[in-house]
Amino acid sequence: MTNNDPPNINAFNPLFKPQEFHLKMGLHICEFATHTGSRENFAGNYRYFNFFSLAHLTEGHGIYRTPDGECIEMNTGDAVLTPPGVVHWYSAAPLHFWSEDIVCFTGPVAEHFLAAGIIHPGIFYFGKLRRLLPIIDLARDPAADSQLKANMALLQLLTELHFERNNQSGSRNPRLTELIGAMRQDPAHWWTVEEMAEFCGLNKDYFRRIFLKMTGMSPKAYIDHLKITQAGELLNSSRLTIRQIAKKFGYLDSCHFSRRFKQLTGMSPQAYRDRLGQSGAPET
After folding, report:
1. Model confidence, pTM
2. What does each C-alpha distance from 122 to 80, 110, 173, 267 come to in angstroms?
3. Tell me, what DSSP letter sits at residue 118?
4. 230 burial class (0-12, 13-18, 19+ CB within 10 angstroms)?
5. 70, 101 in Cβ contact below 8 A?
6. Architecture of domain 1-168 in CATH?
7. How far is the C-alpha of 103 from the C-alpha of 136, rounded, in Å?
8. Per-residue pLDDT tens over the stretch 152-205
9. Alpha helices, H only, 143-281
10. What angle do CA 187, 188, 191 make, to 5 degrees?
11. CA 116 to mean position of chain CA atoms
């Protein structure tokens, strides 16, 4: 902070202290919350955090205010990522109800992500899906396994945001980001091109063009690869049978799933699982 900072600045330190596990890994989710409420006016002091904060406005309207007095309106689906030491004020717009999800984190891994340009500070469109909730649910459990999963989910989300924001342009429909999130949230559903185009409010031909530009794949190929990639993660991390995993990703026939998995990965699901040391799980 400097002598030019506005008066009455509140500093916030991490709410939860890191465990030994967090110190070794270099990443700590130090606070998380879901907020709802309203505000009658702009009263409130400026503040800064001694940690990173990612806040997602899931409902209503908010106001983000900078030290020079600039007020930026935020709407449902917007998010703000604030690094440590950035002076600001942010809350519900006056007379408006709002709801938000928040994940705060700290540690050298986060600092390295910021230095490498993977973390992008500022306000951006995050979508209407509550993508922070799975991380919050995991972080609530202090057990080491849950904390590891929460950290990995956070790192994956920050990486996804990096690519999503790099791909955004004036000609891109922001609902594409929301569509990708919906596809990840419901892995059993087989989206048709018509459904995807309607979700984004675009005609099919234009949707195919911008989807290809964004992902490098056709919509159908993207769904196929997404399902197989997520299935591979389950083969590695769970004791579900191959038949159960196939069903989870919308394959009614486990043989069809196995054939498609081998086409895209070069090995059968069982061979993939064996290679990763999960051979004790049943094959069917």
Report:
1. 0.60
2. 5, 15, 20, 43
3. -
4. middle
5. no
6. Sandwich (2.60)
7. 7
8. 999 999 998 888 776 654 345 678 888 988 888 888 899 999 999 999 888 888
9. 144-167, 175-185, 193-200, 204-215, 219-237, 242-248, 254-265, 269-275
10. 85
11. 19
Q: Please give the radius of gyration of the chain, using alpha carbons only, rounded to the nearest integer.
A: 21
Terminal alpha carbon distance of the chain: 60
Which helix (DSSP H) or strand (DSSP E) does residue 111 occupy?
Answer: helix 108-115
Distance CA 282, CA 259 (A): 18
Residue type at position 268: S
Q: Where are the alpha helices (DSSP H) in 30-100?
A: none
Q: What does the alpha-carbon distance between residue 175 and residue 202 come to, in Å, rounded to a whole number? A: 10
Work out the pLDDT band at 102, boundaries 50, 70, 90: very high
Structure tokens at 101: 């999800």
The Cα 36–Cα 202 span in angstroms is 33
Delimit the CATH 1.10.10.60 region(s) of the chain.
170-284
For 54, the enclosing helix (H) or strand (E) is strand 52-65
Q: Is it true that domain 170-284 has CATH number 1.10.10.60?
A: yes
Tell me where in the chain the CATH 2.60.120.280 domain(s) lie.
Answer: 1-168
| Token pair of 200 as six digits | 């984004």
Q: So what's the pLDDT on residue 239?
A: 86
